[in-house]
Write a structure and sequence with these properties.
The structure holds 2 protein chains of 2 kinds. Chain A is α/β, with parallel strands linked by helices. Chain A contains 9 helices and 10 strands. In chain A, the strands form 2 sheets. Chain A has a 6-stranded mixed beta sheet, with helices on both faces. Chain A has a 4-stranded antiparallel beta sheet with strand order 2-1-4-5, covered by helices on one side. In chain B, α2 packs parallel to α9 and α24 runs antiparallel to α25. In chain B, β6 and β7 form a beta hairpin. In chain B, strands 1, 2, 3, 4, 5, 6, 7, 8, 11 and 12 form a 10-stranded mixed beta sheet that branches. Chain B has a 4-stranded antiparallel beta sheet with strand order 15-25-13-26. A 4-stranded mixed beta sheet of chain B has the order 20-24-21-23. The interface between A and B is large, with 62 and 50 residues. Chain B: It is found in: Cell membrane.
């Protein structure tokens, strides 16, 4: 089976000539189904650029990105948009919910953009909210939800449908530790269900939820490691879980 | 975690090489559009305060257009007052004592059935040169509906009864139930009636005749003429007219819309220009909205919206704004129209049905009301959708497009516009329209480069001016659109003002000199009212007295007529005689004509025709028209038909530069040869000095009491008003646009303002910032607008630039520097308030 995400020699340079800034240099990364990868590095190291390129929001200067085995370079803008709609879910630090749409409408938007009828999409959205314990807030607008609730809604939107690649940029950055843990638990749960996740973070504790940690510095992937069993393993009934078990 | 996607290809089932997305799948279709529109609507509701001005502006334009269209449509004369519901109206002249009428009416009825026949007879009105028409008309006829309405009492039923219009009742000091003596006949007034399609129609209504008397008698006495209303084919009517049924001459008139369609089209065209202007303002507003929503658009991009779906967000905004504003405008227009309609009736001189509206035109107007803001949203929507998602997520606006392309496109359009106008010679409508559209579009395209140029030139300006100009450049999309709107708002009135100045008469031109007056029998028309000898003598005496009072002389003017041409109805409802004119054929069944006077001894003396008559004794037409000796002139309006080469000999005579004085004369020899007769048509009065307002008023009184009309030198006060009002209206419009634009710009720059305040900027700095923004936009708009206006006019008048030598100085000064100064002053006065707290930001 093909990997949900594969980056081969991806480089990104902003600007030209003396003002050129190299954000990413020859990055190689493969994320398999069910795997959760944390990307760490100092500010300006290229973490977010890696995420936006992986998610087809930006084009690499060189190299190739494969989503489910399909090269992005061969796709038009609209095809890339459809790809995001069906296969990639984003979660941002500041939630990025659409103001003016209720929680359930935010979740159903990708489905409706893809032509799913409103009623059918709403059923799917409500089911997602039910799983997240937010069924009673389905018709609340984003500014009526707490930070944790908003991020859970964003997560539901990122995973609705059959998406198998979740890209998260500091997903718990704006949350308290309790809410943050809840969100991480949900991401972990999605990975158990077969989704692949890439998580950009500064927080080592957060990274410990991942199966693998990738370190980026000056645009280059300098190290890849499998962390020790993370907090989730401590919370599980069977004691600390090995990386293999987690996968 | 969620329901599976119905169209996605499960990863487990996919084989390498099989496309991830089925081709053509995932366009979203209706559900996607509905979802995007729903979000757009919600955003619109959240931002309703920001949208109030724009919505109000569109609603105002649509409302004014709806009410204006309804009023203009209703104001134009309705054909129902003359034709009823018929397509043709024939006037059958009964000759002396109406002897030929019974046979003629019988034949008409037989050949044109179904037809409604109305018999007419004129009776004198004591103390007036005008007579009163007694008509026998069937109020329940097939075609007469719309010509008669019972106000009170009942319709007359017998030969001894009449119903009167209120004005006729007032003339004879009578009322319903009383008797009235009409032409020596005592009749009982049974009620009050009116012609709802022609309220000025003063008449007495008699019961329609029965049997053989139908259509040929009025109140038991023979009728003089009859009107026939019919829907018979034109060919049948023409055949009947040629055969002169019963020996009576017949004049045919086809139903006409009296320019109603043209006036409706004019209003819609005017509304289109106004909506174009509003669209430019709206484009600026939508550009601001697009900027505000950039992050949200980025978010939508991350969840997979295509470019088209992203465009739909703002297009939906435009369409929804347009729909809401148009609905409000339609209600506003209707609310204004309903109470206005009855007040318009007396001015329009016909009853107005509030629901008798040009519905297709109204529908077109409403569609335009929605389409214009939608189209205005298109460009900002396109630009917004093309911003890379990552850039949009960081809310960074797109880089302004290079100005070079706009400049080249503008240059091409300006050249094409001027190129179309030069050969148009102001007469080829298509070229004129194409030329104006080209120049207008060219000037609009120059707006964005002009904004960039101002921003680039800001380097050495004082701090506040520099910041203001650079802000304009940063927000080029909206400031460019606003500048385009101001350019149009100024350009159109400047062009009108210059044209009005060009049209103004010089002292030795115009219709008449300030010492001359034309006094005409009846109105200025080719049908001269037939008056009794006593009435003529009374008119002559009145004119002589007035001429003496202004120290001048009255030269009698006569025209010729063919006795074989039947009488018809002159303006004012009197029986009249069509007179001959002279002219040339200018096309298939198209003739250009001017009045033809008779070279009476008085006229020969007054207009110095003697030498020409002596030099060319065989001359039949003496004319001061250019080229009248080279190109043949014909005598029009007679039954005589000359063969080829039989055109009367025309001789050119020196004439006056004034247009209303006689310019063509038929010699008395020609009158005799062609068997014509002459009729007094008026007087040219030349006073000893310039006529004063009192002299004019006295002449008008004299004319009104004697059934005459007067014409004096047109002072063209209207043109002066046009010049000033057009520029003032354009200035008001431009200032309104400026207020909206500057308000939006400064609101978007609120953060900068807070920073400025935090770093110690005073209220004077803030005022200067707003004043510089407003003044710079106004200055650029005024310059571009005036340049555009002059480019159009110079191109159109390239064959003769002399009319443009009359420069409308005051209106131009009002435009420049008046508008920029006023804009800057208004900006200065309205700004200065300290912005809200530094920590407070605009909510997303």
């Amino acid at each position: 089976m093909t990997a949900p995400l594969e980056l081969r020699g991806v480089s990104k340079t902003y600007g030209e000539g003396p003002a050129a800034v190299r954000a990413l240099a020859g990055a190689d990364l493969t994320v398999t189904a069910g795997e959760m990868v944390a990307v760490m590095g100092p500010s300006g190291s290229g973490k977010s650029t890696l995420l936006t390129i992986a998610g087809s929001l930006e084009e690499p200067t060189s190299g190739e990105v494969f989503i489910e085995g399909t090269a992005l370079s061969g796709l038009s803008r609209d095809d890339r948009a459809r790809l995001r709609r069906r296969h990639i879910g984003y979660v941002f630090q500041d939630f990025n919910l659409l103001a003016g749409l209720t929680a359930v409408e935010n979740i159903t938007m990708p489905l409706e953009l893809d032509g799913v009828r409103t009623r059918q999409a709403r059923r799917a959205g409500l089911a997602a909210l039910e799983e997240l314990g937010l069924a009673d807030r389905a018709d609340s607008f984003p500014d009526e939800l707490s930070g944790g609730q908003r991020q859970r809604v964003a997560l539901a939107r990122a995973l609705v449908g059959e998406r198998r690649l979740l890209l998260a940029d500091e997903p718990t950055g704006a949350l308290d530790s309790h809410s943050g843990e809840g969100v991480m638990r949900l991401i972990r749960s999605a990975c158990r269900g077969g989704a692949a996740a890439v998580l950009v973070t500064h927080d080592a504790q957060l990274a410990s939820w991942a199966d693998r940690v990738v370190f980026v510095r000056d645009g280059e992937i300098v190290d890849t490691t499998s962390p020790l069993a993370g907090p989730e393993s401590l919370l599980s009934a069977g004691g600390p879980a090995s990386g293999e078990e987690a996968r | 975690m969620a329901a599976p996607h119905p169209q996605a290809v499960p990863a487990a089932d996919r084989r390498p090489g099989v496309p991830l997305l089925p081709k053509g799948a995932g366009t979203g279709g209706l559900p996607a559009r509905r979802a995007v529109l729903r979000w757009s609507w919600r955003l619109l509701r959240r931002e309703r305060r920001r949208q109030v001005l724009l919505t109000a502006l569109i609603a105002l334009v649509v409302g004014a257009a709806v009410c204006g269209l309804a009023a203009m449509h209703a104001y134009v004369q309705t054909p129902a007052g003359i034709f009823g519901s018929a397509a043709q109206r024939l006037h059958v002249d009964g000759g002396a004592r109406g002897a030929a009428l019974p046979a003629a009416v019988a034949e008409v009825r037989a050949r044109l059935a179904p037809a409604d026949v109305t018999a007419h007879r004129q009776v004198p009105v004591p103390g007036s040169v005008n007579g009163l028409d007694i008509r026998a008309e069937d109020p329940h006829g097939h075609f007469t509906a719309g010509r008669l309405r019972l106000l009170s009492g009942r319709y007359p039923a017998g030969s001894g009864e009449v119903a009167l219009t209120p004005s006729a009742a007032a003339l004879f000091h009578t009322r319903t139930g009383a008797d009235v003596v009409l032409g020596g006949q005592r009749l009982t007034v049974t009620g009050m009636v009116e012609n709802p399609g022609l309220l000025a129609d003063t008449f007495a209504l008699a019961a329609p005749g029965t049997g053989s008397a139908a259509g040929s008698t009025v109140a038991g006495l023979p009728a003089a003429s009859a009107d026939v209303l019919t829907d018979a084919p034109a060919s049948a009517v023409d055949a009947l007219r040629r055969s002169s049924p019963g020996g009576a001459p017949v004049v045919n008139q086809q139903r006409d819309d009296y320019g109603r369609t043209a006036s409706d089209t004019f209003v819609v065209a005017l509304a289109t220009v106004a909506l174009l202007l509003v669209s430019l303002v709206a484009a600026a507003g939508f550009a601001a909205a697009a900027h505000r929503r950039l992050r949200q658009i980025g978010m939508l991009g991350t969840i997979g919206a295509t470019d088209r779906q992203l465009r739909w967000v703002l297009l939906g905004h435009g369409a929804l704004t347009g729909a809401v504003a148009t609905a409000c405008g339609a209600v506003l227009g209707a609310a204004a129209w309903i109470p206005l309609a009855p007040r318009l009736e007396s001015a329009a001189e016909h009853r107005i049905d509030r629901l008798d509206l040009p519905w297709p035109m109204l529908a077109l107007l409403l569609v335009m009301g929605v389409a214009a803001p939608t189209a205005a949203a298109w460009w900002p929507a396109r630009a917004m959708a093309r911003i890379p998602t990552a850039r949009a997520l960081s809310a960074r606006p797109p880089r302004p497009l290079p100005a070079r392309q706009s400049v080249w496109a503008a240059a091409a359009l300006l050249a094409a516009g001027a190129g179309a106008l030069v050969p148009s010679h102001r007469t080829n409508g298509l070229l004129v329209v194409l030329g104006i559209v080209g120049v207008v579009l060219g000037m609009l395209l120059l707006s964005a480069p002009a904004v960039r140029m101002m921003a680039a030139a800001a380097g050495r300006a004082p701090f506040t001016t520099r910041l203001a100009l650079r802000d304009l450049g940063r927000h080029q999309a909206r400031s460019g659109a606003a500048l385009a709107a101001i350019t149009l708002a100024i350009g159109v009135p400047v062009a009108i003002s210059v044209l009005a100045a060009a049209s103004e008469h010089t002292a030795d031109g115009g219709n008449l000199s300030d010492r001359q007056a034309m006094v005409r029998v009846g109105a200025h028309d080719t049908v001269v009212p037939l008056l009794s000898d006593a009435a003529r003598r009374a008119q002559q005496s009145a004119v002589d007295r007035w001429a003496a009072s202004v120290g001048g002389r009255a030269t009698p003017l006569e025209m010729a007529y063919d006795p074989a041409v039947p009488h018809t109805t002159a303006r004012g409802g009197l029986e009249g005689q069509p007179v001959a004119e002279t002219g040339r054929r200018t096309g298939e069944n198209v003739w250009a004509s001017i009045p033809l006077y008779v070279a009476t001894p008085d006229a020969v003396r007054e207009f110095g025709l003697g030498p020409a008559l002596a030099a060319a004794p065989d001359a039949r037409i003496l004319s001061s028209l250019p080229g009248s000796d080279a190109r043949p002139l014909d005598v029009l309006g007679t039954t005589r038909r000359g063969g080829p080469g039989e055109d009367p000999v025309a001789v050119h005579v020196p004439g006056s530069a004034y247009t209303a004085v006689p310019h063509a004369f038929l010699t008395q020899a020609a009158v005799r040869e062609q068997g014509l007769r002459t009729i007094a048509v008026g007087w040219l009065v030349t006073a000893g000095q310039g006529l004063t307002g009192e002299d004019r008023a006295a002449a008008r009184d004299m004319a009104a009491s004697g059934g005459m009309s007067t014409e004096f030198r047109d002072r063209q006060g209207g043109l002066r008003t046009v010049r000033l009002v057009s520029v003032a209206a354009g200035a008001a419009l431009a200032l309104g646009v400026l207020a909206m634009t500057v308000g939006t710009l400064r609101a978007e720059s609120a953060d900068d303002l807070r920073t400025l305040t935090a770093t110690g900027a005073t209220s004077g700095d803030r005022r200067a910032l707003t004043a510089a923004t407003a003044g710079a936009l106004a200055l650029a708009g005024t310059v571009l607008g005036a340049l555009g206006a002059y480019l159009v006019l110079l191109s159109a008048y390239s064959d003769d630039l002399s009319p443009l030598a009359h420069v409308p100085v005051v209106p131009l000064l009002m435009a420049f520097p008046g508008i920029p100064l006023l804009a800057a002053a208004t900006g200065w006065l309205s700004a200065g308030r300290e912005p809200p707290g530094l920590a407070r930001r605009l909510p997303e």
